[in-house]
Amino acid sequence: MTLLKPVGDFFALDIGTTAIRVVQLSHGSNDTWNLVKYGHAPVDIKISTSDSAQAQQKLGEVITTAIGQSGVKTKDVVLGIPSSKSFTTVVEVPNMSEQELRGTIKYQADQYIPMSPDEAKVDWALLGQSLHDAQKMEVLLASVANNYIESRLDLVEGLGLNVIAAEPDSIAMVRSLLPAGITDAWLLIDVGDVATDLVVTYNNSPRLVRSIPIGLQSLVKAAVQNLNVQENQAYQFILKFGLAPDRLEGQVVRAVEGTLDQFMLELNKSVKFFQTRYPNVSVSGMLVSGYGAAVPSFVEYLAAKTNIQASVANPWQKVRMSGGDQEKLQTVATQFGVAVGLAQRTKS
């Protein structure tokens, strides 16, 4: 099983916090794809985040439901790894051949990953020459703890599936969210239930990867506390009124202001870190997906706070599909960034 290397025919499985997503694509011409199959099944957050045997059994049942709904026939699957369970970084190493790098990187990995290489699955991909030191090159390193990936494999393979590769969510989403032809620096922001993945890309490759522990649930919790409403109502307020100052007299945006301040602190910290590392490269824009695309005025809020243009990302931009599928996917389309990105892995 590989973390980053290409694979053959398969379908993608994104085991999210509140939903299971399945996508199978066929490769079209150039950088285009055709939608073959897809599935989506909600899952209780208490089930998806529990390690108990009972919860894992129920999670397996939901995965089976999503796959059955999709109509996927192949048993080969590429699995997404949540950013909270993986570590991804970009490191610089002296210039050498790819063969030399292959022989030395596993011994160098312990300098960079927060666990012993013996306790982790580690993979890498060569990004190319360093942007500021011609004597070095940049390498993308990804790792995941053995105990986590083994338990995940037990779950998925116990359903009769064959896991041929696994990949961090933050890497997968770059394929689907970044438009073709974008070579300058862009910040991809995927807001999930409990965390947000931040990836700065340059020349179509990730150059900075971070996950911050603030997501939709953080906003809901702040709204519950400051508006004195039930969680269900707070959730509806966030997704209906969002951050618009003229909706509900601006009560919602004021209620979540403290959480938004923390979010912006981490986002700005990431941008500054990137620009410190690459002083001659500026972030040209931001692309927002997940719940960030669903919360009204969130994109406009980001643009106003950073002075960087921001827009909603479309994970399906390179995928051809029928009008019927477009309509069915409409309400959840922006949440498929990881699943579509996993499905876009190629042999080349």
Set out the fold topology.
Elements lengths: L10 E5 L3 E9 L5 E10 L2 H4 L4 H18 L5 E6 L4 E9 L3 H11 L11 E10 L6 E10 H12 L4 E7 H9 L7 E7 L4 E7 L2 E8 L3 H12 L3 H11 L9 H5 L1 H21 L5 E8 H4 L3 H9 L2 E4 L6 E2 L2 H7 L7 H7 L5
Parallel strand pairs: 1-4, 3-14, 4-8, 9-12, 12-13
Antiparallel strand pairs: 1-2, 2-3, 5-7, 6-7, 9-10, 10-11
Helix pairs in contact: 5-13, 6-7
CATH architecture of the largest domain: 2-Layer Sandwich
- Low-confidence runs: none
Provide the gyration radius in Å.
Answer: 20 Å
Strand segment tally: 14
Shape: globular
Indicate the mean pLDDT. 93
Q: Can you characterise this structure?
A:
The protein has 348 residues and is of the alpha/beta class. The protein has 2 domains: 1-83 and 146-178 and 317-348, ATPase, nucleotide binding domain (Nucleotidyltransferase, domain 5, 2-Layer Sandwich); 180-316, Nucleotidyltransferase, domain 5 (2-Layer Sandwich). It is built from 13 helices and 14 strands. The chain has helices at residues 45-48, 53-70, 98-108, 146-157, 169-177, 216-227, 231-241, 251-255, 257-277, 291-294, 298-306, 323-329, 337-343, and strands at 11-15, 19-27, 33-42, 76-81, 86-94, 120-129, 136-145, 162-168, 185-191, 196-202, 205-212, 283-290, 309-312, 319-320. The chain has a 6-stranded mixed sheet, with helices on both faces. A hairpin with a 6-residue loop joins strand 6 (120-129) and strand 7 (136-145). Helix 5 (169-177) packs across helix 13 and helix 6 (216-227) packs across helix 7. The mean pLDDT is 93.
